[in-house]
UniProtKB/TrEMBL annotation:
This is Putative gluconeogenesis factor. SUPFAM superfamilies: CofD-like (SSF142338). CDD domains: CofD_YvcK. Belongs to the gluconeogenesis factor family. It comes from Lactococcus allomyrinae.
Amino acid sequence: MSKPKIVVIGGGTGIPVVLRALRKEKVDLTAIVTVADDGGSSGRIRSAVSIAPPGDLRNVLIAMSDMPKFYADILQYRFNEADGELAGHPLGNLIIAAISEMQGSTYRAIQSLAKFFHVDGKIYPSSDAALTLHAVFKDGYEVAGESHIAGHKGLIDHVYLTETATGNTPVASRNVVKSIMEADTIVLGPGSLFTSILPNIVIPEICEALWKTKAKIIYVCNIMTQRGETEYFTDADHVRVLHEHLGTNVIDTVLVNIEKVPEEYMNTNKFDEYLVQVEHDFESLRAEKVNIVSNNFLELRDGGAFHDGEAVAQEIIAISQQQIID
């Protein structure tokens, strides 16, 4: 049987967990990563150097590489608060920024680093330009900038993107659309709905490719709701928002965690963006015309609730192999 072609789309800390597990399998793996982050180190770098933000790309690069742990620790090393202009920057972000400036492209920088670190698969920024995420709330108020969205109290109606430097409609990086069209399986998430997943799929070329592709599209539903983004959301609400932004029902399967997070467990000081566990609404999920795979996908570690990458990967592999047979 040929290797399943799997494309994972997202950003933040969610998709590296799944990518790390999938790279151990016999798959042809591609990651498409958001470039709308404007907070923290990534935000400061993109303002100073005018490149696509490197933070999410750095985490994916490490997850998909066979680099020794020492190398990963070097890339993840974050300068301390006493280090002036370097304070808070992970060394890996600065390396990606330097190579992006040298080569005139974040896309080319990531391809060079992928070869250097023996990445198993392909990594593409969703766009080669820094993007600004705009959120329009139900009350009509609009916020520009991913890092500012959670600060406005209210429900988000929709999000859209512009190129930060020009204000133009963003275009996809080279090979992104090709990867989607050639995939057997496409995985959305896990990750923040409005700030990690949607900033990829609302790029018009990517949205259109998701309409046209023959690949099975899987959504890995979040375990916890997120402050300022998905408060009070059920699993069906997550899928509904994705379909509303895509303009049609394209998701084939939703992976839903059914294991309970112990109430006394959550370290709310460390993970203050979390609110409560996502509630299930299987009737409304079925109304979205999706297949539901419910299982124990929960991993409790470091005071937080995360997806068990191995369990998620096994479901993705099973669906991908079936797609090849069909």
